[in-house]
UniProtKB/TrEMBL annotation:
<dbReference type="InterPro" id="IPR033985">
    <property type="entry name" value="SusD-like_N"/>
</dbReference>
<feature type="domain" description="SusD-like N-terminal">
    <location>
        <begin position="90"/>
        <end position="219"/>
    </location>
</feature>
<dbReference type="Pfam" id="PF07980">
    <property type="entry name" value="SusD_RagB"/>
</dbReference>
<keyword id="KW-0998">Cell outer membrane</keyword>
<keyword id="KW-0732">Signal</keyword>
<dbReference type="InterPro" id="IPR011990">
    <property type="entry name" value="TPR-like_helical_dom_sf"/>
</dbReference>
<comment type="similarity">
    <text>Belongs to the SusD family.</text>
</comment>
<dbReference type="Pfam" id="PF14322">
    <property type="entry name" value="SusD-like_3"/>
</dbReference>
<dbReference type="InterPro" id="IPR012944">
    <property type="entry name" value="SusD_RagB_dom"/>
</dbReference>
<dbReference type="GO" id="GO:0009279">
    <property type="term" value="C:cell outer membrane"/>
</dbReference>
<feature type="domain" description="RagB/SusD">
    <location>
        <begin position="314"/>
        <end position="539"/>
    </location>
</feature>
<keyword id="KW-0472">Membrane</keyword>
<protein>
    <submittedName>
        <fullName>RagB/SusD family nutrient uptake outer membrane protein</fullName>
    </submittedName>
</protein>
Length: 539
């Protein structure tokens, strides 16, 4: 087992730097079927493939950064000397990135490592004695999941023949229809071998995960096969498949829409939530869980505990806020009034959703050991002030790329984990696929397939569950907006904007209308290492 792990990491390191000249005998040792003969080993190599989800999908500057900062949902201003990061976030927001952008490079590496770990796990289990069909099926879908993100973000998918896994050769590169068919075959071939949520949980691949991914793939086929098209033509047969697979997920008894509290989907105890189809499990290795999505937007003066504070980074944009009916329960959840007064310590919890205007909360006492309290032990709630400039923590609707400490409405969708081992550690499972999205995919497929009444019914089923007012009619614009209301800050916005033809629109501090930006450039390190890769057009 140690030999396998050692050489596997040698290979995975090669993926990060793009090296392809490992010696054949080392890699043969990795795949020697005599090295591993137990079900525990199968569990171990499968877990390694799953583990890559955590670093790839819980970091604010990887998939989240590419899918959100490039859109009208998020911006990361440079505040004084904070959040400059050599212009990384400004490049993403203004669509002026190059092949040397760190977030683009790191995300490419992470996703390819996910593919590599999945392939190693599949090949290892295929060479073992015993029946590992379910785990092989799980890992095959996981490989497809990583590949779908490569296709979505970069338009190209490096792959190898799992049967041989010749690591000393440049991988084959799939694009367009060929990549779609490869991923589709992986997903379709596994469905009959996958378990249920009751059997494996919401952080492992199930039949419904594969079906939801097929729905997502078919919904985006027009984009993936011709990403630079002036407009996308959605084929009826593809839309019918979206409806078919999403209906099977919706009809499953394993999942139900949240009706009591939308924000509970993103709470620290959300593991196994009834709406969660597939999520990054941050519970099992508690101190490795990431709290970034909760901490990245809060001001430094907003303190969930005396020893925890926000990072004062990301904000949302006025254009996105203006699409909202602020009475929609998904917009905000008030846990304590934003006014001066007192509050019992056990009732103190940060508000959720969109935060605007002057912020209130407890402040530290004189010796910085605890929150200030009155003589009866109640927290003293007061107007917060920024520690950088001494000005009020007053979140403005308007925001710029170079701005002050309080600019921009903030987003607190994910609960801040006050029990994490540090400010950036937490145990909120990060949803990758959930039932609300499946309803929206089916509604969009029905709408594009000329079943507007059926689409409206799905939209209103979701809105009613959330406590929002039902719609009386449905347009493409309303459909697009509904995806924003339901899925904001869930790493979907860029993909949605491209599919709805809005990615070239103008919004705050972004005027680029270059269609080449619909896909990211391949990192220069990847091009240098693999001659089968060709840079995407426009770079």
């Amino acid at each position: 087992m140690k030999s396998l792990i050692k050489v596997s990491y040698i290979f995975l390191a090669s993926v990060m730097v793009g090296c392809t000249d490992l010696k054949e005998e080392i890699l043969d040792e990795t795949l020697n079927k005599d090295l591993i003969t137990s079900s525990e080993a199968a569990e171990s190599v499968t877990a390694a493939a799953y583990a890559r989800l955590r670093s790839t999908f819980t970091h604010n500057a990887k998939v989240f950064g590419l899918q959100e900062i490039t859109t009208d949902e998020a911006i990361c201003p440079t505040r004084g000397t904070d959040w400059d990061d050599n212009g990384l976030y400004r490049e993403l927001h203004t669509h002026s990135w190059t092949a040397n952008n760190g977030a683009i490079r790191n995300t490419w590496n992470e996703l390819n490592q996910g593919v590599a770990k999945s392939m190693i796990a599949i090949k290892t289990m295929q060479d073992m004695e015993g029946n590992f069909d379910q785990k092989i099926a799980e890992t095959t879908v996981l490989k497809a999941f990583y590949m779908m993100h490569l296709l979505d973000l970069y338009g190209q998918v490096p792959t190898r023949d799992v049967e041989t896994l010749k690591f000393n050769e440049d991988p084959l590169v799939l694009k367009g229809e060929e990549a779609v068919q490869y991923i589709e075959e992986d997903l379709l071939s596994t469905i009959d071998h996958l378990g249920t949520k009751e059997e494996v949980g919401s952080s492992r691949i199930t039949k419904e995960v594969a079906q939801a991914l097929l729905s997502r793939l078919y919904l985006n086929i027009a984009v993936y096969t011709d990403p630079y098209a002036p407009s996308y033509k959605f084929k009826s047969e593809d839309l019918t498949k979206v409806i078919q697979h999403s209906t099977e997920v919706i009809n499953s008894s394993s999942y139900q829409l949240e009706t009591a509290d939308y924000f509970s989907i993103f709470d620290t105890d959300n593991h196994g939530h009834s709406e969660m189809i597939f999520a990054v499990d941050q519970r099992l290795e508690y101190n490795l869980g990431d709290n970034r999505f909760a901490v990245v937007s809060l001001a430094r003066s907003q303190k969930p505990t005396p020893t925890r504070r926000g990072w004062n980074g990301y904000a949302t944009l006025p254009e996105f806020v203006d699409t909202w009916d602020v009475t929609d329960p998904r917009f905000s959840k008030v846990n304590f009034a934003q006014e001066e007064g007192t509050l019992a310590p056990e009732l103190y919890e940060l508000n959720r959703g969109f935060m605007s205007g002057q912020q209130y909360g407890p402040v530290l006492n004189e010796d910085q050991s605890d929150f200030e309290k009155d003589t009866s032990g109640q927290l003293i709630i007061t107007a917060l002030m920024n520690d950088r400039d001494g000005l009020p923590t007053d979140f403005t609707k308007e925001v710029k790329l170079f701005d002050n400490q309080s600019s921009g409405i903030r987003v607190a969708k994910y609960q801040f984990d006050i029990n994490g081992s540090s400010n950036s550690r937490g145990q909120v499972d990060i949803p990758l696929i959930r039932l609300g999205d499946v309803y929206l995919m089916r509604a969009e497929a029905k709408f594009r397939n000329n079943d507007v009444s059926g689409a409206l019914s799905d939209i209103n089923t979701l809105r009613t569950a959330r406590g929002a007012k039902p719609l009386t009619s449905l347009t493409e614009e309303a459909l697009f907006n509904e995806r924003g209301f339901e899925l904001y800050w869930e790493m979907q916005r860029r993909t949605d904007m491209i599919r709805f033809g809005k990615f070239e629109d103008k919004w705050t501090e972004k005027s680029s209308s270059d269609p080449n930006k619909r896909v990211f450039p391949l990192p220069q390190t990847a091009l240098d290492a693999n001659l089968n890769l060709v840079q995407n057009q426009g770079y």
